[in-house]
Amino acid sequence: MPLALLALAIGAFGIGTTEFVIMGLLPEVAGDFGVSIPTAGLLVTGYALGVVIGAPLMTVLGTRIPRKRMLMLLMGLFIAGNLLSALAPAFAIMVIGRVIASLAHGAFFGIGSVVAAELVAPQKKAGAIAMMFTGLTVANVIGVPLGTLIGQHVGWRVTFAVVAGLGVIGLAGIAKLVPELPRPEGVHLRHELAAFKNAHVLLAMAMTVLGFGGVFAAVTYIAPMMTHVAGFADGSVTWLLVLFGLGMVGGNLVGGRFADRALMPMLYISLGALAVVLALFTLTAHNKIAAAVTIALIGALGFATVPPLQKRVLDHAHGAPTLASAVNIGAFNLGNALSAWLGGLVISAGLGYTAPNWVGAALAAAALVLAVLSAALERRETPHGATAAASVAPADRPTAVHH
Predict the structure, then answer these.
(1) pTM here?
(2) Which stretch is the leader sequence (predicted)?
(3) Pick the CATH number of 186-403 from 3.40.220.10, 1.20.1600.10, 1.20.1250.20, 2.40.110.10
(4) I need a surface site. Which of 170, 268, 309, 316 has the fewest CB within 10 A?
């Protein structure tokens, strides 16, 4: 794998850390600024909405800029946002810092996915995308628990200063290791927007919202579910989230490996199994060991869908994939926000802390239905599927030897 992928993974690690670490530090931040914890929750919501808005906005602004330079500018924005968060004299300023940092998120992963795919042979594209996303998944195993620990013992401002430092390392890595890639000739904003006329691009994005909604319906409320239902101590939640992160790392790498060989079967298996596991979580949440295993499985199955979904968007956004790729990252965050809201509704309705798992199972099942629909649509569009498969087979054969 090219070293440039490592630089992208470091940037992804910093972004993943800043996105999720705030959840563990809300009480400290709320206490410092003298606001309630639900008000401090605006730091999570503001970030998610910033990703949804920033992904297309920053990508459109960057269509005229070479991709390497745009990645460097985005890391600069990320550093500035985290420094502002670390130094914020008032809560409103910290919200602004979070939003500034979030503007870089979607476009970084969107443009980064395109760059990662261009750095390797065609049959290794999904693996390269997974390699970059490994930074995001490893952030949940190392960056978030460590950041939470630093925040609780030394101060949350130090956490955000350290994250800004990670951004500086990522920026230096991109500057040194990512090659200057020529901008695709003749690709203008209208070409990028044309990708959204493709039904497969839209279906893949809908699968992203629903599939990831399934994961985060359960994970958003994991702390009260594990302490009130499974009987874990408050301090154990961090380690359960590390388990979730380890599942994410494994699932992402497996998803990347198999998406290059059998993309749609990979989606069927991961989304179908995710729906089943989320439904079972309503039962396994009552047993400590079963709950811990289920949490790791949800992380693995959820993230096994990331490389295939991102690659499907790239494949169908013919020749102008950058905006579609970035908007798909926004779709992940839209799924997070939507499912957190739906999960909150069923808990508020008095259905108990395990009720969001049913919401998650329904969302994952809906994503599976869309995957089947998308594949059926594709088969109808290519009646000469057999001939196409025959012509592709020789090129695919060597991959089995390489792996």
Answers:
(1) 0.77
(2) none
(3) 1.20.1250.20
(4) 268
